[in-house]
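[Meeting: bench + compute handoff]

Bench side (C.D.) handed over the final construct sequence. Compute side (W.E.) agreed to return the predicted structure before the next meeting so the bench team could plan truncations. Sequence as handed over:
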Amino acid sequence: MSATLIMKKRTPVLDVVEQQVDPVKTEELGGAEKIFAAKPKKKWTAKRIAARVCLYFWMSVLAVIFLFPVWWMIVNSMKSNTELVAQLSSMRTFLPGNIKEWFASYANLFTFTAFVNPETGGSLMGRAILNSILYCAITVAGVLLVNSLAAYALSRLKFPGSGVITTVVLLLILVPVETSIVPQIVILTKLGLLLPATRVIGYLIPGLVSPFYIFMFRSYFVGMPKELEEAAEIDGAGKLRTFFVIIIPLSKAIFATVAIFTFMGAWNDYVFAQYIFASNAEMMPLQVFLQQVNNVQPKDTSMVMAALTISTVPIAIVYIFCQRYIVEGVSFSGLK
């Protein structure tokens, strides 16, 4: 077959690919531009503008409804307790108070006699904040390491019983966390990890493993190409080196998502922490210490609002700056 005959049978698409002609601007392509051409932008008609205005209006209404309690909490944390109680029955309760008393309740949290350690003179409120930060940091680091390694083993290593273990992990996701608190306490007591000297270890260990996070990591690792690991193995890298040098850098999205969810869960933990640290104010995390603030007599509601605001700020910051990963994590777990 001659070259002339071959050229006659060439399709317009091949001409576009080889000659690098813009298919959108070429009029001789026939139906090819329907495949390659970008979708035209929709025009802003009156109907579309009205629909968009209605959408933004209802979104704004919902935002106000959801943010209203947070606004009320912050505003009342910046008033004296006398002013707060006096304004509860009026609309002024939703407005800021005297500017001179905006931070008085916050200062009282760190200087109030009931919140000061009589032996050291240190602030129990400040200690509770530091405890929460420390517990969260250890929990996040441990969860990322332990669960990612377990998931990598289940997704890449083939050994007897791997399928059974994966099935058990999936079934454990269905078990409510609250049902495991009593068995955990019994086991930790038998192991001697709830003694005064070891209760911090006993508090942190159960939170390092999560079937849900193992499932998330495994689902992500299964979708990664094995050729990368095979190339690393040819270069002499072992499984652990491959995991830390290749897999982790390529899995930043899932690691960030799990880290955010873990931080939020560890920061808000109350039930298990309440049992572990009920009698030790020096080791209490912030969420448990909030109960101490609420139990002060006579009750200072403005100080309670200030404590709640402080406990809410880290979660709000994480959500504002990391909401993309939170949405991806929710949609990822749902799709998988």
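W.E. noted at the follow-up: The longest helix spans residues 301-335. C.D. will use this when planning the next construct.
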